[in-house]
């Protein structure tokens, strides 16, 4: 096969639209943990480009259990209007809705779940619970607008005439009966998974982030995983969505293992490239021009992987540019280096676009902070002092300080924003921790011996 076929796969940067993804999707350690019914991991958090769309498809298409419910903004149109509910109230409503949604899907898949151990009586009970809930909703609100075929969220979206009314929960007895019906089916061996991508868009049509609603959804997912075996809800969130939710919901501290990051090891990133090459009957040594076969992998390990920000997307984009520069012939170090500045600018633009709503002008802030120190390592306190000095003496930084979100962040708080955006990397002992690494955790960042601009962004800044 020709390298040009592999090159085409490198250009498929949107996992949700890649028709050939199944042939080379990489089952990372993070994905394995999310797929496991015994793992507490219910919330998957990652930078844009870290493989969220591919992971979503893996859990809903390629590793699908007996019953799968896939929710994302493209497939579901219902929205939960903001009601200023606290996360505890939202958790209760979502727990009930998630159970009823699972029962609805089970009833729709009756023939399949019978083969997995569910009895006709169990399925009849599931149908009865769903019908009973919808009857209650209709009696309370008169009609259900925009419900479609789903139960999930209808307790929030009921509308009476022009006013929107939250129906709220059923009596405790009815809630317990619905949960018991689902538990009996799952105990019989039926495996049910609900996967939700970008819940801030699925459940809201507004631009404002409802942290308590999303926090309630996450807590519901965590609680149900522990209460019902063979039933799991997985929620995908971007980092800039998860961080404010985690700050608003103190109950997350009770579940230290509820969240996993979409992280990549060097071996997994190389494996991703190898799988794409294999899909076109090529090997790494066919892609890289080197003196010996192992040198191709070594090029990636030494020259490319340390200069990535989000992991897979940055790597594929870099390979795309290098192959284009060399007209689809074998890549050398010269080709890798010749497009590294363009790769850096693309990574920088990705960061800006992903955080435009939360942190407008973030790119300008990063460039101002590092315009003369792109390769410098700072101790944590030294970095804070560097920012304070810029606010005092640098005209560009003074102007940026008038941005509303900047006015809410002191010099001690701004590093956490840069961490959240993947603009900062750090040292943990002797190791350099990049934004796509497993140890890229806030606690590790706060105890880092030094921090610095993520190497992938340096050429875009300097």
What secondary-structure arrangement, pairings included, does this model have?
Blueprint: H1 3-10, H2 21-24, H3 29-35, E1 43-46, H4 52-62, E2 67-71, H5 87-108, H6 110-115, H7 120-141, H8 154-157, E3 159-160, E4 163-164, H9 172-187, E5 192-197, H10 199-202, H11 211-227, E6 231-238, H12 239-248, E7 259-261, H13 266-279, H14 284-287, H15 294-304, H16 312-325, H17 333-338, H18 340-354, H19 362-370, H20 380-393, H21 395-400, H22 404-407, H23 414-420, E8 424-428, E9 431-433, H24 442-446, E10 450-453, H25 458-461
Parallel strand pairs: 1-6, 1-7, 2-5, 5-6
Antiparallel strand pairs: 3-4, 8-9, 8-10
Helix pairs in contact: 1-16, 5-7, 5-9, 5-11, 7-9, 11-12, 16-18
Structural class computed from helices and strand pairing: alpha/beta
Name the overall outline: globular
The total of helices stands at 25
Number of domains: 3
Question: How would you characterize the largest beta sheet?
Answer: 5 strands, parallel
Q: Give me the count of strands.
A: 10
Oligomer: single chain
Averaged pLDDT: 88
């Amino acid at each position: 096969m020709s390298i040009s076929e592999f090159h085409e796969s490198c250009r498929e940067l949107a996992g949700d639209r890649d028709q050939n993804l199944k042939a080379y999707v990489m089952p990372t350690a993070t994905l394995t943990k999310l797929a496991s019914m015994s793992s507490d991991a219910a919330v998957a958090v990652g930078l844009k480009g870290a493989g969220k769309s591919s992971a979503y498809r893996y859990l809903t298409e390629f590793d699908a259990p007996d019953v799968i419910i896939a929710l994302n903004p493209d497939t579901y149109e219902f929205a939960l209007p903001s009601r200023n509910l606290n996360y505890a109230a939202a958790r209760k409503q979502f727990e009930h809705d998630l159970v009823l949604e699972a029962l609805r899907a089970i009833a729709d898949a009756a023939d399949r779940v019978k083969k997995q151990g569910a009895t006709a009586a169990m399925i009849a009970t599931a149908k009865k619970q769903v019908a009973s809930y919808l009857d209650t909703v209709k009696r309370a609100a008169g009609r259900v607008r925009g419900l479609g075929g789903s139960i999930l969220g209808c307790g929030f979206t009921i509308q009476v005439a022009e006013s929107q009314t939250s129906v709220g929960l059923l009596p405790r007895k009815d809630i317990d009966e619905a949960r018991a019906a689902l538990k009996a089916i799952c105990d019989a061996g039926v495996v049910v998974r609900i996967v939700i991508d970008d819940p801030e868009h699925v459940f809201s049509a507004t631009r404002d982030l409802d942290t308590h609603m999303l926090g309630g959804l996450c807590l519901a997912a965590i609680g149900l995983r522990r209460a019902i075996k063979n039933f799991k809800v997985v929620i995908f969130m971007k980092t800039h969505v998860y961080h404010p939710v985690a700050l608003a919901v103190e109950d997350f501290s009770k579940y230290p293992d509820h969240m996993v990051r979409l992280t990549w090891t060097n071996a997994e990133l190389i494996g991703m490239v190898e799988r794409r090459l294999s899909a076109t009957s090529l090997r790494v040594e066919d892609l890289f021009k080197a003196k010996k076969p192992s040198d191709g992998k070594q090029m990636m390990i030494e020259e490319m992987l340390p200069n990535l920000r989000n992991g897979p997307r940055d790597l594929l984009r870099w390979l795309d540019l290098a192959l284009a520069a060399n007209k689809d012939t074998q890549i050398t170090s010269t080709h890798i280096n010749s497009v590294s500045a363009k790769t850096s600018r693309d990574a920088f633009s990705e960061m800006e676009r992903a955080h435009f709503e939360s942190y407008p002008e973030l790119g300008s802030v990063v460039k101002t902070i590092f315009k003369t120190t792109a390769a410098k390592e700072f101790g944590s306190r030294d970095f804070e002092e560097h920012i304070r000095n810029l606010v005092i003496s640098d005209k560009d930084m003074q102007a940026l300080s008038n941005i509303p979100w900047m006015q809410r962040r002191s010099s001690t708080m701004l590093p956490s924003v840069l961490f959240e955006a993947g603009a900062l990397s750090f040292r943990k002992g002797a190791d350099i921790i990049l934004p796509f690494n497993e140890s890229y955790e806030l606690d590790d960042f706060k105890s880092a011996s030094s921090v610095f601009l993520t190497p992938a962004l340096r050429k875009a800044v300097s």
